Amino acid sequence: MIKTLSKYIGKYKKTSIITILLTAAEVVLDIFLPVCMAKIIDEGIQKGDLGAIYRYGIIMAVLSILAFITGVASGRLASRASTGFVANLRAAMFRKVQTFSFKNIDNFSTAGLITRLTTDASNMQMAYQMLIRMCVRSPLNMLFALVMCMIISPKLSLIFVVAIVFLGLALFLIILNAMKSFKKVFGEYDELNASIQENIRGIRVVKSFVREDYEINKFQKAIDRLYTLFCKAETIVCINNPIMLMTVYGCILALSWFGAHEVVGGAITTGQLTSLLTYVMNILISLMMLSMAFVMLTLSSASAERICQVFNEEPDIKDPENPLYNLESGSVDFENVYFAYKPGSSEYVLNDISLHINSGETIGIIGTTGSSKSSLVNLIPRLYDATKGCVKVGGTDVRQYDVKTLRDAVSMVLQNNVLFTGTILDNLRWGNPDASLEECIKACRLACIDDFIETLPEKYETRIERGGNNVSGGQKQRLCIARALLKKPKILILDDSTSAVDTATEARIQKAFAENIPDTTKIIIAQRISSVKNADRIIVMDDGKINGFGTHDELLESNEIYKAVVEGQQNGVRDFDRMGV
User: Fold this and answer.
1) What phi-psi label fits residue 436: left (phi over 0), alpha (psi between -120 and 50 degrees) or beta?
2) Which residues of 126-152 are buried (b: 16+ CB within 10 A; e: fewer)?
3) Are strands 396-397 and 388-393 parallel, antiparallel or unpaired?
4) Which of 106, 432, 487, 519 is the most exposed place for a label (fewest CB within 10 A)?
5) Alpha helices per DSSP H over 202-269
6) Rg value, the chain, Cα
7) Helix, strand, or coil here: 7?
């Protein structure tokens, strides 16, 4: 875990080392202050030597100023190093997530990834700052103070040794128990973030169904669970303070009692006893700071583990050793393909799929909900890999292509596609960053969205709100189709992406496709027969298998499911799943 995270310190390694050195210098300067104080008492006050008081007073002032300067400098550098480290960590995590396939993403919840990039990363920032500052300062301060105590009085120093052993054991037991609770806390954070994300994303639905009270209660339960877990963790951690204070006061009482006897007996001077009392406070405050750092590191270790889960997740879809960078055509072949979402599962969502699609063909796909229509087309651009069998594009196994090359050649438009914050033109150019305005207008004309854009005051410079909330569902779908067309793909997949478009506009879109992109293979998933009726061939999916494959007329003659769908829709039944097929 340390090895995984430490490489993201990057250019801040030098800053971190300087911070550690400055912190050590600050400790060394601080440790001589009690010595000067003892000299002032023994050689100045008790002997009435004003010169000694001035001399050691000036030395104390200089040491204090230098300690202040090194302390400020180390604090500033520690802040810069920890902030830079976490900036690198977040950037690396985000880059890693971008390499994930859909299967990798399925292993993490969206809320879980967000928590890792925000809360967990922030915990790592605090932990790293403590690591290069407090976890350096406190042990050094404690060690040097203990050495000075041993020099002054080895006998009285045994008090500190006993205290350190006692506190070390107590701290170990506290951390051991707190760690288990903190791990559960971060799991609950994921659930809390998921609840927030789901509610905000679906706020319009919540309000339209008047479910505000239900959502509030659900959120309150999540807060209560988090509160309970945090209380348990904090209760364990809070034991640290009373144990620490009890040890501090016990050491002061023991040192005062035995130290007074040593002074009376002439073993040590009054000044030395004063410095011993200062050193005991240094030691115990260092222990207190160290215990707080350990608690923070304990909390952060749970975060570190969760972050490492992201880095250790290996993308299951990778480029081959010698990838191909050229697709010959848009033909598609499925050869005895089986597919399961869970590795090793014997429950396949696609079973023994074999079919051939010619380049430039228009293929329709229909089937009930859950018949694995989307799963079928997701294998073409390698959003998932087939569990068994082979998927070919242009006559070549998709696993032999460079992934970027393959996905550039395959455009997918989903039913619930996403628009991003920015102008219409910005969103269109996701399909081709170098597309000219004329190319964007042409793509919008093919998607039958150009008329709508021309009515807007700023036309193609009109700003799209987050998620495309200022355009209708049909407009969003057509903008996404235009965006996909700008890639000039060899294969265009429309996954129920005209469901919010009226049939007349859908017919215009399909006519534009036939006339302007005849060489592009078009695969159209739909619920409406009108959407696939004019396709060259139609696939009928049922329970992860191909139930029929042919033209509209052929399926009407030979396929009972297709025939029932056509008859049902002619009689006004639009819901595929209610047709009894």
Assistant:
1) beta
2) bbbbbbbbbbbbbbbbbebbbebbeeb
3) antiparallel
4) 519
5) 203-208, 212-238, 240-264
6) 35
7) coil
Q: Tokens standing for 216?
A: 């509030």
Burial-class residue 263 by CB neighbours within 10 Å (0-12, 13-18, 19+). Answer: middle
For 509-519, the pLDDT digits (tens) are: 888 888 888 88
Angle made by CA atoms 186, 187, 189, in degrees to the nearest 5: 60
Find, among 208, 143, 193, the residue nearest to 306 by Cα. 193
Question: What token pair was written down for 383?
Answer: 């959003």
How many whole angstroms separate alpha carbon 295 and alpha carbon 136? 15
Instruction: Give the number of other Cβ atoms within 10 Å of residue 545's Cβ.
Output: 15
424 with 462: CB under 8 angstroms? yes
* Dihedral sign from CA coordinates of 462, 465, 466, 467: negative
Burial of 331 (0-12, 13-18, 19+ CB in 10 A): buried
Give the amino acid at 41: I
What DSSP designation does 535 have?
A: S
Q: Helices (DSSP H) in 313-382: which residue ranges? A: 373-378
Q: Around Cβ 42, how many Cβ atoms within 10 Å?
A: 19
Is the Cβ–Cβ distance between 271 and 40 less than 8 Å?
Answer: yes
Digit-coded pLDDT (tens) for 182-230: 667 766 766 777 777 677 667 667 766 677 787 778 778 777 877 777 7
Residue 410 token pair: 């395959």
Cβ-proximal residues to 264 (8 Å cutoff; 6+ apart), any chain: none
Please tell me the distance from the alpha carbon of residue 409 to that of residue 487, in angstroms, as a whole number. 7
